Amino acid sequence: MFDSLTEKLEAAFKKLLGQGTLTEDNIREALKEVRRALLEADVNYKVTKDFIDEVQKEAVGAATLPSVDPGQQVVKVVHEKLVKLLGETAVDIVLSDPPPAVIMVCGLQGSGKTTLCAKLGLRYKKRNKKVLLVAADPYRPAAIQQLQTLGRQIDIAVFDLGQARPQDICREAVAKAKKEFVDLVILDTAGRLHIDDELMAELADIKKLVDPKEILLVADAMTGQDAVNVARQFHERLQVTGVVLSKLDGDARGGAALSIRAVTGCPIKLAGIGEKLSDLEPFHPDRLASRILGMGDIVSFVEKAQASVDMAEAEKLEKKLRKQQFTLEDMYDQLQSLKKMGPLESLLEMIPGVGKALKGAAIDPRGIGRVEAMIQSMTVEERRNPQIINGSRRKRIADGSGTTVQDINRLLKQFGEMQKMLKNMNRFKFKGLPKDALPF
Question: Residue 106 above 90 pLDDT?
């Protein structure tokens, strides 16, 4: 989402590269570009003004260090202020004790409320919580069926009373949850195409009836300032306890993410980063600030890897690497783990330096599938001993995988380079990744 903003901020900071000292003039000139970049990203005007004023005040007074480039000192100040703007620390959802805890999910139609309810349900099911999803939107066509379908996918019960009043649905659901020792009740409330008094009165009634521990507002990150305005109005009427940014993986400008915390005062607690029901992450202000400034997010990368990789298999692979026994079978297994971690482009952006090194490179999302097909078309012997793959074998593998002999040649060459790199692992130092280093 923040590619354009990141690019423009990097261009602004380049104006300070090579400057001997930080002066009010050169800082002001660079921050003009930063201001323009933020406004073009649809960040709220007042938020942008306050942000620039704070950065300028601190950067002008910063002592310059001989060993640090002045431009990098300004980047440090901008990073600190971005973290502050986004909320400083991650804020988790609070569950009440004794159970059941009630989470009320609200927002406009199309913001992703129903999907978020399922994502939340899956998140807490993995934490061994007994969850009940509640279809409290009797107005939108197929809303109940959508939640039921999602509930079946993740094996979580869905409570509904058909076309009954939302207030009655929520009250009955919480009563049922208490009887059945449910830990968490998630209310999928009704939305509208716009905010109106009828909607707000209904939500206020539900709040009084079930006393939710959390009132989460789903804000579509792709709607820019509209999301900020919606969040402000919902918070004024309901005292929202947290915001969830949906569609943070989209290609919008990202201004909502940077404005919503400052405008509403509500912490951003979670972020939807994809269409899968597992694509829900805690919102970390410091990590997002680092990614916006092109610094990567290695912590999130490691967490994704830990969640996707079988540690026993990882230990086996480590032993093979030490003995220099890495094969195409092992490469295939690693591709399977990589796919579980999410889109390749998003993963590469998390690694400091890699996203910039590959900028402009054509990374075909179907490439992993082609590599898998090529390896699957090989015999067990060929996967373990690629050196036996001669011309006729290459032709057979290409025909079986729907690729060309040139594709097979490229894969084998890159696999050979990978093996050489692994042999020199102890002496290897990362100095940048060539754009043709990936086999997809």
Answer: yes
pLDDT of residue 62: 57
User: Is 359 within a domain?
Assistant: yes
Q: How far apart are CA 107 and CA 190, in angstroms?
A: 8
Residue 78 and residue 93: Cα distance in Å, rounded? 28
Residues 188 and 109 in one domain: yes
CA distance 120 to 15: 44
- CA-to-CA distance for 193 and 45, rounded, in angstroms? 25
Q: Are 60 and 107 found together in one domain? A: no
Residue 11 lies in a domain: yes
The rounded mean pLDDT for the chain is 80
pLDDT at 69: 62
- Closest-CA residue to 267 (of 304, 226, 219): 219
Residue 380 lies in a domain: yes
HSE toward the beta carbon, residue 233, CA cutoff 13 A: 17
**Cis before 100 (ω within 30):** yes
Distance (Å, rounded) from C-alpha 97 to C-alpha 253?
A: 40
Burial-class residue 8 by CB neighbours within 10 Å (0-12, 13-18, 19+).
Answer: middle
Residue whose structure tokens are 């509403």: 264
Nearest to 256 by CA among 216, 290, 225, 213: 225
Contact 264, 219 (CB under 8 A): no
CB 125 within 8 A of CB 154: yes
Query: What are the structure tokens assigned to 285, written together?
Result: 């202000």
Pair 189, 136: CB distance under 8 Å: yes
The tens digit of pLDDT for each residue in 397-438 reads: 999 999 999 999 999 988 888 777 766 654 444 444 444 544
